[in-house]
Each structure stands twice: as C-alpha cells, then as structure tokens.
C-alpha cells in the first residue's frame, strides 16, 4: 500500500537476518497509493499500539490477569509491526541516528540564532 515491506530470513549458517525495504519512487512513476491512503495507513499503524496499551492498563487495574496476557501479546506484536514499518520508512539505525542528530542540531542553531538576534 505504501511501498514498504520487511521480513526475516535465515541463511545457510542458521543466522537470522532482518530485511527492511522501501520502494524507491521515480518522478515519472505513477504513485499506486494516494496521500490520503498513506495517512490512513500510518494513522492505523500508530493508533493500534496505543489502543493495546490502553487495554493493558485496563486489564492491569481491573486485575484481569488472563486478559493481561492477551493484551501484552497485542502490544508486543503491534509494537513490532510499527517498529518494522518505521525502520523501512526511515532506513537503518545509523540513518535514523543521523537524522535525529541533524534535526536536533538545526533546532539548536535556530534557537541560538534567535537568541543572538534578540540580544
């Protein structure tokens, strides 16, 4: 739907390898999904783990331990799904780290430049 996929494969040595892929879109290429569909996908992907966490607190505070086990599995599986798609969208961890560092650096510079201009 949004051009992302991830999976796990095991090589001949028995080592597990996770693969995260994102479709590269060319300018000439026609998009298969609209912007609205993409927003719906990401909204659903983010709200499901939030709902499971709410259910987990509900089961915890009502002392329904049988349901807490089910809800915990829901949180873990939905969280893994969200993590996988975010890794596909953003890329590998070093890319995620450099992106966060760049963003924080820009915010720091913007904040300091504003302070210098005010003074």
TrEMBL record:
The chain crosses the membrane at residues 40-61, 67-86. It is found in: Membrane. Keywords: Membrane, Transmembrane, Transmembrane helix. It is a multi-pass membrane protein. InterPro entries: TVP23-like. The keyword Methyltransferase does not apply. It comes from the Eukaryota. Belongs to the TVP23 family. It comes from Phascolarctos cinereus (Koala). One of its GO terms (cellular component) is Golgi membrane. This is Golgi apparatus membrane protein TVP23 homolog. The gene is LOC110194358. It holds the Pfam family DUF846. One of its GO terms (biological process) is vesicle-mediated transport.
């Amino acid at each position: 739907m949004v051009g992302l996929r991830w999976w796990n494969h095991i090589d001949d040595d028995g080592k597990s390898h996770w693969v995260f892929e994102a479709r590269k879109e060319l300018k000439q290429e026609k998009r298969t999904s609209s912007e609205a569909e993409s927003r719906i996908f990401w909204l659903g992907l983010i709200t499901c783990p939030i709902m499971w966490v709410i259910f987990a607190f509900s089961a915890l505070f009502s002392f329904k331990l049988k349901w807490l086990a089910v809800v915990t599995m829901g949180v873990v599986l939905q969280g893994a799904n969200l993590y996988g798609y975010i890794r596909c969208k953003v890329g590998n961890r070093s890319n995620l780290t450099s992106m966060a560092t760049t963003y924080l650096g820009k915010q720091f510079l913007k904040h300091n430049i504003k302070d210098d201009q005010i003074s």
